């Protein structure tokens, strides 16, 4: 069975522009945006709440079960800040957004993140945690690092990914 469209993962530290990029891509392609946080919220796919970071704890296994059929069909842009738990077979390409720390700090402050959460996310970006996760979880030729500091970066990233989508050829599974 071949999929009707590619599956793309947009990942990176919170505040790098994943949701904005995913929304732009969805409006410029025939692909569906899958905001993992929203899917988890709608279906109550949580194990509990992290008081220190002030965020819910995702039930990754239940999320995978929830998305399996949709991902098998293809044509999805998955937006999430982590990537190592998704099945490798799901994605044709993975984009890791990176943002300079000073810009990222300001974005996280505007979101009213507490200092602990800001510090945690800035360290994640400094140590390229998400990029390393992606490189360890997927074939190296499908993992791409994209700068996401300016509106021009965003436009270039949209153009690059849309061009890639136009060249995508379905693979039989």
TrEMBL record:
| UniProt GO molecular function | AMP kinase activity; ATP binding; ATP hydrolysis activity
Q: Where is this region: LID?
A: 110-120
Q: Which reaction does it catalyse?
A: ATP + H2O = ADP + phosphate + H(+); AMP + ATP = 2 ADP
Q: Domain of life, per the record?
A: Eukaryota
Q: What is its main location?
A: cytoplasm
The record's annotation in Gene3D superfamilies points to: P-loop containing nucleotide triphosphate hydrolases (3.40.50.300)
Annotated residues that bind ATP are located at: 15, 17-20, 111
Q: Which SUPFAM superfamilies match?
A: P-loop containing nucleoside triphosphate hydrolases (SSF52540)
The EC number(s) given in the record are: 2.7.4.3
Pfam families noted in UniProt: AAA_18
Record's keyword terms, sorted: ATP-binding, Cytoplasm, Kinase, Nucleotide-binding, Nucleus, Ribosome biogenesis, rRNA processing, Transferase
Q: Where in the cell is it found?
A: Cytoplasm; Nucleus
Segments of this protein annotated with the region NMPbind: 35-58
One GO term of the cellular component aspect?
nucleus
Its GO biological process annotations read:
ribosomal small subunit biogenesis; rRNA processing
Function statement: Broad-specificity nucleoside monophosphate (NMP) kinase that catalyzes the reversible transfer of the terminal phosphate group between nucleoside triphosphates and monophosphates. Has also ATPase activity. Involved in the late cytoplasmic maturation steps of the 40S ribosomal particles, specifically 18S rRNA maturation. While NMP activity is not required for ribosome maturation, ATPase activity is. Associates transiently with small ribosomal subunit protein uS11. ATP hydrolysis breaks the interaction with uS11.
Give the UniProt family note. Answer: Belongs to the adenylate kinase family. AK6 subfamily.
PANTHER family per record:
ADENYLATE KINASE ISOENZYME 6, POS9-ACTIVATING FACTOR FAP7-RELATED
Note the subunit structure.
Answer: Monomer and homodimer. Interacts with small ribosomal subunit protein uS11. Not a structural component of 43S pre-ribosomes, but transiently interacts with them by binding to uS11.
The protein in question is named Adenylate kinase isoenzyme 6 homolog
- In the UniProt record, the gene name given for this protein reads Ak6
């Amino acid at each position: 069975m071949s999929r009707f469209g590619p599956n793309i993962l947009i990942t990176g530290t919170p505040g790098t522009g994943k949701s904005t990029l995913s929304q732009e891509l969805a409006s410029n392609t025939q692909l569906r945006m899958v905001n993992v946080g929203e899917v988890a919220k709608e279906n109550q796919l949580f194990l509990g709440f992290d008081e220190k970071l002030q965020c819910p704890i995702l039930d990754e296994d239940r999320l995978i079960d929830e998305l399996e059929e949709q991902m098998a069909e293809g044509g999805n842009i998955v937006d999430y800040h982590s990537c190592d738990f998704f099945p490798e077979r799901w994605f044709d390409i993975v984009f890791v957004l990176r943002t300079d720390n000073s810009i990222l700090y300001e974005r996280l402050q505007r979101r009213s993140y507490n200092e602990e959460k800001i510090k945690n996310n800035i360290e994640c970006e400094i140590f390229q945690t998400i990029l390393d996760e992606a490189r360890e979880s997927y074939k190296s030729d499908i993992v791409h690092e994209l700068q996401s500091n300016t509106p021009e970066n965003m436009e270039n990233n949209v153009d690059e990914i849309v061009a890639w989508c136009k060249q995508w050829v379905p693979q039989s599974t």
